[in-house]
Each structure stands twice: as C-alpha cells, then as structure tokens.
Amino acid sequence: MSNFNNGSGTVGGGSGGGGADGNENNNNTVSGAGSGAPTPSDASLLTSLKRSRSPPPDRATRFMAAPLSAPTDPKRPRPRPSASRVLHLGLPPGALASRILTVGDPARAALLASHLTPRPQDKGRLFIHSSSRGFTTYTGLFLSTPISIISFGMGSQMIDFLVRESRDVAPPGPIIIISYGSAGGLKPTVPVGTCVIISQSVNVTRNSDHWTSGKGTPYNISLPVPANPRLTSHIYSQVKQSSPCVLGESATTCSFYSSQARTDGNFDDRNTTLISQIQKKANPTSMEMESFHLLDLARSTRGQNRIASGSAVVVVANRVTGEVVEGRKLAEVEGRVGVALLRAVCGVDLGEIWEGEDLNDGESDESA
Questions:
Q1: What's the rounded Cα separation, in Å, for the pair 78 and 90?
Q2: I want to staple 92 with a disulfide (CB 3.0 to 4.6 A). Which of 19, 178, 202, 334 is the partner?
Q3: Neighbours of 188 (CB within 10 A)
C-alpha cells in the first residue's frame, strides 16, 4: 500500500475502488479493512465526528426557537480541477451510488455512515472523501444496496453544487436524492422532535430591489414545488414505523436570519410580518434552507438521467411556541429517522418511481 501527502490531504490504498484514483491531488481519504467493518482509521474518524455533535440546546439554540413576537448538459461538462473529478465535490465517476442521502451536518453523515459496509469493488474499504469545498462523501452498502451519504453544510448554493455535480458523476440512468435535516416548526400542533416529510416547498427570498427602489414587497414567496409523490409516500411509510412524523409543506428561505423573520436592531430587515405573509400564501409546517432547491433542481432534470427527490426534517425548535427539543431526545430521533431513511432510499424500486412516465421525454435541446 502506498500513501502520499499533497499538503492538504491523504490518499491511502492505491486502487481503493469506487473511483478513488490515487494519482489526483485532492483532499481524499480512503481507508478500510477486509472484514466489512470500519478499519481503526475509519472508526476513529467516525468516532471523532460523532463526538463533535452539538451539546444540548443552549442560549444560541434557544434563539433559533425564539417566538415570532420576540425581537430578536451532459453536452456541457461541469468545470473540473482535473480530467476526472468534479470541482466542488471532488469526486470522479464511480464514486457515487444511484441512491444518495444528503445531510447538512458532517457528524450526522458520520453517524449514518456507521451503518454502511464496503462495496465489493472497494476491496473491504468504506469509501470516504472530504473535498476542499466542505463536502464529505461516504459510499458503501446498506442492506446489500449501494448508497452514498453526502454532508454539504447549509444553503441553496451548496445544494446546487451537490445536485448538479452528483448527477454528473453518478451512474447513468435515474437516481434518487433525499435530503435529511433539521428545521424550525411553524405549527403549534407539531411538537419538537417530530419528523416532517416534505410534500412540497415554497421559496422565500429577500427582494433587494425593494430596498433600492422602495417598490414591491421586501420578500418574494414563490409558488410551491412538489417532491416526487411516489418517493415521498415511500419515505413516509418507512419513517412512521419508528418515529412521530407528519406530511407537511416547507418554507425554504434564502437566509437563516432576515427571511426567517428573526429581527435584529442592527439591520433594516422589514420582516416583522413575514411569517403571516408566508402563511397567507402557503401552509408551511416547517422552515429551513434547502428543500425547495433540491426539489426544484430535480424536477428540471430530464430524459434518462432524471432525478427523483424528497426531503425530511426533524423539528428542533418551534417558532410559534418557543419550545426547543432536549438534546438527548434529538439524538435519539435523529438516529431512528436516519436509519428509516436509509431503509427508504435502499428499499424503493427505481423503476416504480417513474412508472407510467416516458424517461425519453424532454431529451431534445430547447435551442434546437
């Protein structure tokens, strides 16, 4: 086995499989043993990431839950740093499975990855790659089915990188991407610790022209975009077996602060009535920063490389009541929901998701 250090990362194991080519200068770690269990280096990485979980809610977390009244082309390849790797995920073809579960928190990704075993082509090594742009990818098997888990951070830009570049290097043909995160609750009847399976989402964005011209509204609220209905139904049926869950709409926002109606005397955000404006146009159960963008990008894919997407969030803080989930309960719920989502992603039939649809539809170029 040969190792080399390029100053920013280590590639171990030579032909580690899964597209982890050992001749690229990129932040990459591929390590493992032959038994299907994580090697000592894998285990230490997973353990250290798990221990980085946030402590039980403190003042900062409680601020997240402050009541609303409180001040407070295939034809046009992606840019690549080398001939084989996409720019932001840092992955070559073959590194991803056709089923992908995404999370914001790298510790949550490590927790979920602890349930995986290596693919045969990885020769006993769980594929792990950390890119220089903040993405960590695990690829392995769950219930003998290939799956990738990717942590991405937060926000729409990171989702755009993830979805487009995953589609570029994932196996040809239809794929699944499910997002799993945390959210604020917008209904007093949905307690903290509940998992919301997103049926559709609206996009809430700050309208900068309003501050420039004084015209229009401070925030734009889009029409809803639906999740894939068959995939969503399958997710719901799996999660409800182990955890409290509801089907609900999401309000996806462009920021954590102004467009989520958090007030700050240092900024002119004009958002004191924003929640009521959203509720007049939609019926959101939760509020977060990614679901809309995943669903919107997935519905715009076409042809044989179509993406089916869904989203699930755990309510950690209720914006109406001010209730915050207790840390131990949150960890328990995250674990149960995470395993249920792994089962959902790996248990769904890719063909059934598009049953009755023509995957050749939309293949032609608009400009033709």
A1: 12
A2: 19
A3: 11
Q: How far apart are CA 195 and CA 5, in angstroms?
A: 42
The percent of residues in the chain predicted with pLDDT above 90, rounded, is 71
Q: State the DSSP H helix or E strand holding residue 205, giving kind and residue range, or none if neither.
A: strand 195-206
Give the C-alpha separation, 232 to 335, whole Å.
20
Assigned token pair, 261: 């109606």
Say if residue 86's pLDDT is above 70: yes
Coil vs helix vs strand at 277: helix
pLDDT band at residue 131 under the 50/70/90 scheme: very high
Q: Is 148 exposed, middle or buried (0-12, 13-18, 19+ CB in 10 A)?
A: buried
Helix (H), strand (E) at residue 47: helix 40-51
Structure tokens at 159: 């989702």
Q: Give the C-alpha separation, 291 to 240, whole Å.
A: 20
Instruction: Return left, alpha or beta for 193; rule: phi > 0 is left, psi -120 to 50 is alpha, else beta.
Output: left
Q: Flag the least confident range among 40-49, 86-95, 271-280.
A: 40-49
CB neighbourhood size of 55 (10 A): 7
Rg of the chain, C-alpha, whole Å = 21
The string of DSSP letters for 207-250 reads -HHHHHHS-S-SEEEPPPEEPPHHHHHHHHHHHTTTS-EEEEEE
| pLDDT bracket for residue 70 (50, 70, 90) | very low
Strands (E), 58-113: 99-103
Query: Is 160 a residue whose pLDDT tops 70?
Result: yes
Question: Residue 16's closest CA among 32, 5, 27?
Answer: 32
Judge whether 136 and 128 are in contact, CB under 8 Å: yes
Tens digit of each residue's pLDDT (9 = 90 or more) over 24-36: 333 444 433 333 4
Residue 154: both structure tokens together: 């937060």
Check residue 83 and give its pLDDT: 55
pLDDT for residue 58: 45
Q: For position 199, what pLDDT does the model report? A: 98
Phi-psi region of 236 (alpha: psi -120 to 50; beta: other; left: phi over 0): alpha
Distance CA 90, CA 166 (A): 10
The DSSP symbol for 137 reads E
Q: Are strands 175-185 and 99-103 parallel, antiparallel or unpaired?
A: parallel
> What is the C-alpha to C-alpha distance for residues 27 and 128, in angstroms, rounded to an integer?
10
